[in-house]
Amino acid sequence: MAQTPFYRLPYGARRDLLAQQSHLTVQQLAKIAARQRSADADLIENYLTTYGLPEGVAVNLRVNGQTIAVPMVTEEPSVIAAASNGGRLLTSERGITTKVERREVMGQIVLSHVADRTGVKAWLIAHQDELLKVANEVHPSLIGHGGGARSLRIRCIPPYWMSLDLFIDVGEAMGANLVNTICEAVANYLKEHLTVNVLMSILSNYATHSLVTAEVAVPVDQLATKTIDGTTVAQRICDASDFAEHDPYRAVTHNKGIMNGIDAVVLAMGNDWRAVESGAHAYASRHGSYQSLSRWWLEDTTLHGELTLPLALGYVGGATRVFPLVVINQQIAQITSARELMGVTAAVGLAQNLAALRALVTDGIQHGHMQLQLKSLALSVGATPGEVPAVVGRLRGSTQPTTAQAKAALLAVRQANLEK
Ligand code: MEV
């Protein structure tokens, strides 16, 4: 008899099968059970449990003249501290200013093995209005909300492909399903009216038509550390910024620091961080080599910073409806639209970047990280929240504590507790 496929098994049977195959203990199964959330079970295939990540709030951020707290979801100990620290350095009257000139999602209908590309191109150009009309008939409610298909572009990609790019204003939504449905409808129309081989219809996550820029100007005095004056710190930050424009090895880490902030906000706001990641890194490579997404430069006594990246974030729809915390997080950050969300997210990325660069070019990154890393090191060796302060206290003296030292510190703490 054919075996029931895993995904068709009831929850308990799936869990028991896994437990048997992987030799899970009763305690491990209890952990899995404790984290189960019935609402998540219908969200994905083969649901087992819910993997929680910590959520915290970056404070001190001043964006477009408003001081806000921004929820961030991350497992990296220093990320929220760095965002708040960066924000504190950027608190002029307007703080970080952001702009979003256009917010459209692109969908592409890919034609393959096109023999007469000139003829097909001419046909597509002649029928542009008709194609946009077909696109706009798919979701009339989108037009009602002020959105809709705005324009199209035709690209010939050697040796034999063509891409019909549709630019769609998806309103406040993330719009992935919307754009895919529209593209498939237009593709069907093409198949009916032209002899073409439609290879696929899908949105592009290279969101070059949803760019957001965050800018800031900071008096150099604000950057001084206990031992280095503000001008020197600013000059070194500019040098680090130039280096990241020239060396892809450094650019990747520089951008990773920016994405530490961006991903954490994107997650807290229920958006698709994989889409954001892939789009951001493609944008970083737009000049032919991988470069930094931000730039810092000095004018007299002011350090200027700028970050531009594609961020097609949605304020409604998708996972924003599924996770109850998203609406709360939007409220905490005082975000009421997709454009505001794009701006605040980019602002966090810029603040995160400044905090990392300032630490790197002054005291070094480990100096500030260590206190936070010690807590996660203690947790990683099994310290309970109640034991963490004592374990951290014992580790504080060593410059580069190892897991073995952390284990020894935990043992010592437990021993001392027994002797009390
Ligand atoms: C660590 O998660 C992020 C940094 O490496 C970023 C950077 O180097 O700019 C500190």
Question: How would you summarize the topology of this molecule?
Answer:
Layout: H1 11-22, H2 26-34, H3 38-41, E1 55-63, E2 66-73, H4 79-89, E3 97-99, E4 105-112, H5 117-126, H6 128-138, H7 140-144, E5 148-157, E6 161-169, H8 176-193, E7 197-203, E8 211-219, H9 230-246, H10 248-268, H11 273-284, E9 294-299, E10 302-310, H12 319-322, H13 324-332, H14 338-361, H15 365-380, H16 388-395, H17 403-419
The protein binds (R)-mevalonate (MEV).
Residues 76, 253-254, 256-257, 260, 356, 360, 365 line the site of (R)-mevalonate.
EC number: 1.1.1.88
Catalytic activity: (R)-mevalonate + 2 NAD(+) + CoA = (3S)-3-hydroxy-3-methylglutaryl-CoA + 2 NADH + 2 H(+)
GO biological process, one term: coenzyme A metabolic process
Q: How would you describe the overall organization of this protein?
A:
- This protein is α+β, with helices and mostly antiparallel strands and 420 residues long.
- It contains 17 helices and ten strands.
- The radius of gyration is 26 Å and the shape is globular.
- A four-stranded antiparallel β-sheet has the order 3-8-10-9. A four-stranded antiparallel β-sheet has the order 5-6-4-7. The protein has a two-stranded antiparallel ribbon with strand order 1-2.
- (R)-mevalonate (MEV) is lined by residues 76, 253-254, 256-257, 260, 356, 360, 365.
Q: CATH superfamily assignment of the largest domain?
A: 3-hydroxy-3-methylglutaryl-coenzyme A Reductase, Chain A, domain 2
**Percent of residues in helices:** 40-55%
Radius of gyration: 26 Å
Category from helices, strands and their pairing: alpha+beta
Mean pLDDT: 94
**Largest beta sheet: what is the strand line-up?**
3-8-10-9
Q: Secondary-structure element sequence?
A: HHHEEHEEHHHEEHEEHHHEEHHHHHH
Low-confidence stretches: none
Q: What composes the largest sheet?
A: 4 strands, antiparallel
How many domains, in number, for the residues?
4
Task: Could you tell me the CATH topology label of the largest domain.
Answer: 3-hydroxy-3-methylglutaryl-coenzyme A Reductase, Chain A, domain 2
